[in-house]
């Protein structure tokens, strides 16, 4: 049972990684003059949209969490709306945090905001898919020993990895190498993406490695 | 104590206090000074980083590398006109950075990093130099090329064409610009000295390295330039082509490797220069030799501080051998006299030239001069026949040469030398001190006797070793090197410490080793945030903490607005807030900012006062409290007046000018006076405790005291601050049979922090006065951030449920220090010399300082303001959690009956808890100080290592060395202030204990 789930997780995560790689490669054939560095904003949009759709589809197909008890249509709609609101709020929150960490306040608002959207796609959207608009559950998952399934462990790892990646991505910005990828927010978003991908790959491996130690409490 | 004895590791740079040039003309032939002028004009073409291999032409080479055999024109000149042209190896002295080389090429001395005699604020050369001599003698100097010269020689040039030099990627702007102006200028003839500084070769080296096709192109361009330049020259013109330094295989320079110091020099004129043909292998000449040579050839005096030697063969002229030799002898004589005078003047002001060598040089010189005089007399008397004369002339020239070379060697040895051994020694010393700090802070929980043994004996050891070394030096009659002695002493004392440590606690050592790993994990700067994730149960606390962290982030972000710029970042704009208000044109904005600043000051005072009142420290009628009540607003008033006067437009006040002059001086003095009075009061009587003693007057005041104040005091002053000494008084109560006689002390709970806060506020006022007006915003941020940090620390600790209340965790210390260095930048400073705020020296003074000490203190206080504030307030990290215990108990308070205070006392002890266990308190203070010093020392160590490893780096004199200097100064300032802060706390402690004993006596 556990092995099978880990395999499913691995497959899902590899699919995510593959999608991100595709978003970097495929649009170059369709759109003229598309490069990740040159038309970074376009790539940011494409990447966030693709990753979010894939996540939603995966969530619908795999159904990692237990279905809620009441599932009337109106309830689903309200849940969906709540999710949307949460996502938007998280975008704004990320924007504020990024500005607090030193992004320009007035110039290049679009770039900052798209970067915030990307970050929320990598972190908040996953949480929303997995846990629903339920802050209590989020706090539980992100506290010590709070994960209750391998999906939630994977969620922890990927989220932390993407945020750390974004943070490390900011390191080369002040250096004077004059490289095109040092422009705000390219290095950060690339860092976040690489962190996310690394998290996706690390998570199943780590869970596999520690499967003896990992014992999940039931609710 | 042990740690402040850190040796500054880089002995590479020496102080260079040159006496100002006091040049008197001596008896000179008309038209030229010192020596007859040989050329009326000279063209100096400096090709940056022209390595000797670039200029050397070897026709035998079959497959030249990109940089070889490109300057074929020079070779052509040398071979076709051997008496007109010659190529030399041009030995540059390290450091081979362009600016230092330009200084060397014009002053003829060995510029080191800090020229103490000069003004730090500008880079301009203050010493006597070739250009100054030329200008002084009425020559027209035209310059084109690298704009470094503009900073070095402001307003010296008759005409100049500067081009930006900073962009290393740009190979062509400077060169093309020069080429555009060069030939028209040469043809116009309105010049006596023309300097053209080409940068393309150097930039090409930095960008591509020497082994690149671009380099070939660049050198070919230079070749063409020289070819057409020679065509434009007249007969009375001397052409000098020089490289200021070489480059390594990677195209860098700055160090002292063979390839970097090996540049090329090419001399040419259309009239014959040399008596003989060129030697097989090009001769090597030192770079400083160019200065006296050019000076004498052009007939101007040699710059005062030159230590170069004339290139004699250029003076041989076209006469016979004897007259040539006589001529050479003459210039050697002049040169030697000048060098001797310089050495003499230099040794009067500085001791770093070894005395016995100077003596030897002196002997050499006087001997040579005497013989010269004899020889001249004999020549005039025609008593000598040519062959003998020739040999004697030759030997005399040899003696002069020897003298000049030895003089230069002595100077070089003592000025331009890195001491790798000493550097490594200094580094290990710092590292060992850091380690010691760390271990000591880890062991602080050990017994007290441990301290006595471990710290006292090593100190004794150090003293003994120092005395022994001193005696040894005295016996051997060597020069006493104080630095070495002190460092040996420090090393010995540390060895002693480690010895004791190993002997006494061999087991602990292993423990500490293991702890090291464990702590490495903890010391993540994001400490507070890590803890956030851990504890979901304390939701409310977490929200509070999150808000605090957000506030901290906001503070950090806002403080970014106050940054100063480095000159390496051209697109950076310095913050608006740095310039003084007086420079603002817009009166409305000025008034607005002024009001804002004053309001901020007032707000700060109000905040401090309300804080003190909250903790009940403002109730007594002691002089200190009175000062806090009335003195603070007065200080603020003074500062506000000073700012108003200083920022008002100069001419607007008209008749009041004299009054303004007085006020500009008077107000700062008032602030200084008030602040020092406050600090003195604080030292004399640091207790801000108001004691109500109801024992004696129990009968009469009983009813009003129990009735009214108990409610009033409850609400206004919040009873929890009252620490009642229940143990004794309760006993006495019981004895007397009533509970009414108690001693109520207001504000005892926060005695220590109150004193510290008052001191901090005073210091803050002083420092604000020294900064420009609008930086008070930054100071407000500083105080706010410190406050927030303290709160975060307290909260995080409350969450973690720390078992050890007497130790401050590492993350708190590190974040404290990070904040200190952050506000170093945020108060508008940068670790470079032009960024120092020099006007701080003139706050309250009128451009006249009798000594150098006072302005140095003022400027230092300005520069290290944040270091001072944070170091003094360091003990607050320990005290704050105790102070903040109050709010938690406050909630319980109202429910309880006043009579039940007995139990509450245990909760409301706050800082009095520290009194309970005095040993623990002192060790905790010591531990905190050691931790702080450890983190500081680590920072310093990193800087020292960077400066040591990168001592060959291109930017070392611009970036790493100043950073190192600032960092070490900051270290010293911080340690002193830390000591002051801790001693203040100790003073309060003493006062509290005397107070208690008095209370018990009563």
From TrEMBL, chain A:
The keyword Phosphoprotein does not apply. It holds the Pfam family PIG-F. The keyword Membrane applies. GO terms for biological process: GPI anchor biosynthetic process. Pathway: Glycolipid biosynthesis; glycosylphosphatidylinositol-anchor biosynthesis. InterPro entries: GPI_biosynthesis_protein_Pig-F. It is a multi-pass membrane protein. The chain crosses the membrane at residues 9-29, 41-62, 83-106, 112-132, 153-171, 183-209. GO terms for cellular component: endoplasmic reticulum membrane. Keywords: Endoplasmic reticulum, GPI-anchor biosynthesis, Membrane, Transmembrane, Transmembrane helix. Its main location: endoplasmic reticulum. This is Phosphatidylinositol-glycan biosynthesis class F protein. The lineage of its organism: Eukaryota, Metazoa, Chordata, Craniata, Vertebrata.
TrEMBL record, chain B:
The keyword Ligase does not apply. CDD domains: GPI_EPT_3. GO terms for molecular function: mannose-ethanolamine phosphotransferase activity. It is found in: Endoplasmic reticulum membrane. InterPro entries: Alkaline_phosphatase_core_sf, Phosphodiest/P_Trfase, PIG-O_N, PIGO/GPI13. GO terms for biological process: GPI anchor biosynthetic process. GO terms for cellular component: endoplasmic reticulum membrane. Pathway: Glycolipid biosynthesis; glycosylphosphatidylinositol-anchor biosynthesis. It is a multi-pass membrane protein. Its main location: endoplasmic reticulum. Keywords: Endoplasmic reticulum, Glycoprotein, GPI-anchor biosynthesis, Membrane, Transferase, Transmembrane, Transmembrane helix. The chain crosses the membrane at residues 423-443, 455-476, 482-502, 542-562, 592-612, 624-645, 665-685, 743-769, 775-794, 806-825, 864-883, 930-950, 970-996. PANTHER family: GPI ETHANOLAMINE PHOSPHATE TRANSFERASE 3, PHOSPHATIDYLINOSITOL GLYCAN. Belongs to the PIGG/PIGN/PIGO family. PIGO subfamily. This is GPI ethanolamine phosphate transferase 3, catalytic subunit. It comes from Balearica regulorum gibbericeps (East African grey crowned-crane). The lineage of its organism: Eukaryota, Metazoa, Chordata, Craniata, Vertebrata.
